[in-house]
Design goal:
Radius of gyration: 24 Å
Oligomer: single chain
Shape: globular
Number of domains: 1
Number of strands: 15
Largest sheet: 7 strands, mixed
Helix content: 25-40%
Distance between the termini: 63 Å
Strand content: 15-25%
């Protein structure tokens, strides 16, 4: 009886509601648009506690964004969204991406989102921006990544969690929120060791790859190949102002010393990952300007459009196997792009260990991988985003410009 009365009341209420039409014949589908990268800029990469020690990640991000906008020729009022990858956000202040956007001179009405997907943060930021354009939701976007590993704080529990007396434990934010496998309770370097062991990547292979990367970075700087992408950073100090326009650390290669370094993570005699063939801690930022076809045609002629984003793909494995997750994404991306593996001119796998590159090379059966971060620059001396893949992306575009064939970046 009660159920019948309730049903009657609902029917009476519905009768008084305004009638709405839900047509299934209305066309809602839109044609997928092309997304183009018009410009790319990056700050130099500074060493941990180096030249950028006094600058926050948003301040570095602002420099990269401002430079990328200037290079693109796209008016600032065309930008509607900013996506910036940042892994270690502690001590950065509220809404880091929004800080970077406003400090770069963009309007306060521009939406900004900070992305954290660990090593893939910067790349995911680019994908999200590109999808907005592809879906026709935006004409122009900014995307990139930023990190100040130097300014990451130590953590101290709140008073309610502290013991009444005795010693207190202080945790390193760099480790806790950036470099620690929470599922297995060990350093990410141990994951790299597991990968090296599983795919038979030797210590010699890792060291040789690291040495090659250092040497290529040195040659690239000597030939001034990074001039077009560097956004100099002005650092204020007690002596006045210093302009930083060159990467730090890549000149420090000592081949014999690198080969003699002891394993950093597994020290039972089987370890192969060292401080020499793994990334260092760094500070820096990078940014891209993306537009649709119309704006690319309007503003890209003078700055030269760098690339068209054809497809993207995500993939995941057990957390301990994250180093080879890119290999799982490869066939998905290739299928979406409508190309085959042999049509790819350049492969770029973004990671913090030489073992990762060599393992993915084996899994994908790719005999020659040109990693922007490692092969051209500094074998991930770019740990600027732990690596969220932001600054290394800028390096990739030099390959895009030089190659008429497709490029894959993971």
């Amino acid at each position: 009886m009660q159920a019948s009365r309730a049903t009657s009341r609902l029917a009476l209420h519905a009768a008084h509601l305004p009638k709405q039409s839900f047509s299934t014949s209305r066309t809602v589908a839109k044609e997928i648009q092309d997304a183009y990268i018009l410009s790319a800029a990056r700050t130099p990469v500074a060493k941990f506690n180096g030249s950028f020690a006094s600058l926050s990640a948003p301040q570095l991000g602002a420099v990269a964004i401002k430079s990328a906008l200037e290079k693109s020729n796209v008016p600032a009022d065309k930008i509607t969204d900013v996506y910036m990858g940042q892994v270690l956000q502690g001590n950065s202040g509220q809404a880091p991406a929004r800080q970077a956007a406003i400090l770069a001179g963009l309007s306060s009405s521009v939406e900004a989102i900070t992305i954290n997907k660990v090593c893939a943060s910067g790349l995911k930021a680019v994908v999200l921006a590109a999808q907005n354009i592809q879906l026709g939701l935006a004409e122009a976007q900014v995307a990139g990544g930023m990190e100040s590993m130097t300014q990451v704080p130590y953590y101290l529990p709140r008073a309610s969690q502290l013991p009444a007396f005795g010693n207190m434990k202080v945790e390193d934010g760099l480790i806790k929120d950036g470099l620690w496998d929470v599922y297995n309770q060990f350093h990410m370097g141990v994951c790299a060791e597991n990968t090296a062991s599983k795919y038979d990547v030797t210590r010699e292979e890792q060291d040789d790859y690291a040495i090659q990367s250092y040497q290529r970075a040195q040659a690239a700087w000597k030939e001034n190949k990074f001039a077009d992408e560097i956004a100099p950073v002005t650092v204020k100090n007690k002596k006045g102002e210093t302009v930083i326009s060159k990467d730090e650390g890549f000149e420090n290669l000592q081949v014999e010393k690198l080969k003699s370094l002891k394993p950093a993570f597994v020290r039972d005699g089987t370890g192969t990952v060292t401080a020499g063939n793994a990334s260092t801690l760094n500070d820096g930022a990078s940014a891209l300007v993306l537009t649709n076809r119309e704006l690319a045609q309007q503003y890209g002629s003078g700055s030269r459009v760098l690339a068209r984003i054809v497809a993207s793909a995500d993939a995941a494995l057990d957390p301990v196997d994250f180093p080879v997750a890119p290999a799982k994404a490869v066939p998905i991306a290739l299928e979406r792009a409508g190309i085959t593996k042999d049509q790819v001119a350049v492969w770029e796998f973004n990671e913090a260990f030489a073992a990762v590159i060599k393992a993915n090379e084996k899994v994908c059966s790719v005999h020659q991988i040109a990693s922007a971060m490692r092969s051209i620059l500094i074998r991930n001396r770019f740990s600027v985003c732990k690596m969220p893949g932001s600054t290394p992306l800028v390096e990739l575009f030099r390959w895009v410009i030089l190659s008429a064939a497709p490029v894959l970046v993971f």
